[in-house]
Specification:
With 99 residues, the protein is mainly alpha-helical. It has one domain. It is built from 1 helix and 2 strands; from the N terminus they run H-E-E. A two-stranded antiparallel ribbon has the order 1-2. Strand 1 and strand 2 form a beta hairpin. It starts with a helix and ends in a 21-residue tail after the last strand. The model has no long low-confidence stretch (mean pLDDT 77).
Amino acid sequence: MKQLATSNLEFQQFVSSNNMQFQQNMTATIQDLKTQIGQLANTVSQLQSAGSSNLPSQTIPNPRGNASVVTLQSGKELPQPTLQQLPRLAKADYEPIAN
């Protein structure tokens, strides 16, 4: 019986020690998360105060302008479509969406 009581006491000490260590690790992790959220909030605030609605990385415009010719792998160039070649939708091709 005495051995069981000693074993039980050792187990309680072990659980208590592990619980304390777990709580310390959790506290440190929560503090790290608070720091990271604060840094993120500062970055967002700086981006908003810059007054720019654009993202920091801008796309580079094509120096050759708009693409107006399509060249196939065979080397054949397709002509530009004219307004008459563009398909038109007839009223029968679509249905209005009912609410």
